[in-house]
Write a structure and sequence with these properties.
Elements lengths: L1 H33 L2 H10 L7 H30 L6 H49 L3 H6 L2 H43 L1 H18 L10 H21 L1 H7 L7 H18 L3
Helix pairs in contact: 3-4, 3-6, 4-6, 6-7, 6-8, 8-10
């Protein structure tokens, strides 16, 4: 009788712990979803430490590189106009040709500096995420590692830290350059002909309206679902590899690992949705 009572109490405690765990996970997910892009960006840059200001220098260099890369085309336009004249000014053509070369060289150098600084910050962020994650794991109780799959933890520490590289090292300076490029082009178009500027402005507005649906509605959570499915698949794969000796002994197939099979199907489905996101 006492054994049954203690078993029932233990089951009640386990169920209560599972409910608390589910509530905490739901709370964490809601906080992650409500977190703004600016807050996420600031948290990410905190891992760079004292190297954080370099990312802003990188963005400024990318902007200046874009401007320096656009200016030569104005000189090329003037060179063509000068050549088409009845009496072209050769000295002016040569001087403007040298300006084209100089500005292109300046653009390449500034872009090289921008990428160098952004890569430096990206590497610091990756190492910071990994080191602080390991410090946090060293403070966790053993029960945490019993409940969490090792494949999921490895992806969280190693793979997810590596995913930040492309965004910080490449996308950040490129986004700064992309943001300033249409502004500079519109200024140049309006300076030559206001009709050309209006046409380009309407085209830019139409492009924004076409791209906006890709990052709103159901597509907003597509990347989150994709990453979650990848974590589940990695965790199930590690469990499957560890269970291979048992599979061989009892002559089972992969279909006996229902969790692994479902994780692969979910990852396949979310991968297709992410591919065709539009």
């Amino acid at each position: 009788m006492k054994t049954k009572t203690s078993t029932a109490i233990q089951k009640g405690r386990n169920q209560e712990q599972q409910e608390q765990k589910q509530k905490q996970e739901q709370k964490d997910q809601s906080q992650e979803q409500n977190r703004t892009a600016k807050e996420t960006w600031n948290i990410l840059l905190d891992y760079a430490g004292r190297w954080r200001p370099l990312i802003w220098v990188s963005m400024i260099a990318a902007v200046l590189s874009t401007v320096a890369g656009i200016i030569p085309y104005t000189y090329i336009h003037q060179i063509i106009n000068n050549i088409l004249q009845e009496a072209p000014d050769i000295n002016r053509i040569i001087s403007m040709a040298w300006l084209v070369v100089i500005f292109f060289v300046i653009s390449v150098l500034l872009y090289f500096i921008s990428l160098s600084l952004s890569h430096l910050v990206a590497f610091r962020i990756e190492s910071g995420i990994r080191s602080k994650s390991m410090q946090r794991f060293m403070e966790m109780p053993l029960g945490f590692f019993k409940e969490q799959a090792s494949g999921k933890l490895r992806k969280t520490i190693d793979d997810n830290a590596g995913l930040t590289h492309n965004m910080v090292a490449h996308n950040t300076p490129d986004l700064a350059a992309v943001a300033i490029f249409p502004v500079v082009m519109l200024i140049i178009f309006f300076s030559y002909d206001w009709r050309m500027g209006l046409t380009s402005l309407f085209t830019l507005i139409a492009a924004v309206f076409l791209i906006f649906p890709m990052y709103s509605g159901k597509n907003r959570d597509c990347v989150h679902n994709y990453m979650t499915a990848q974590e589940q698949m990695n965790a199930s794969a590690v469990e499957y590899v560890r269970g291979i000796p048992v599979v061989k002994v009892f002559q089972q197939t992969i279909h006996s690992f229902r969790a692994f099979r479902e994780a692969i199907k979910n990852y396949s489905r979310f991968s297709l949705e992410y591919t065709y996101m539009a």
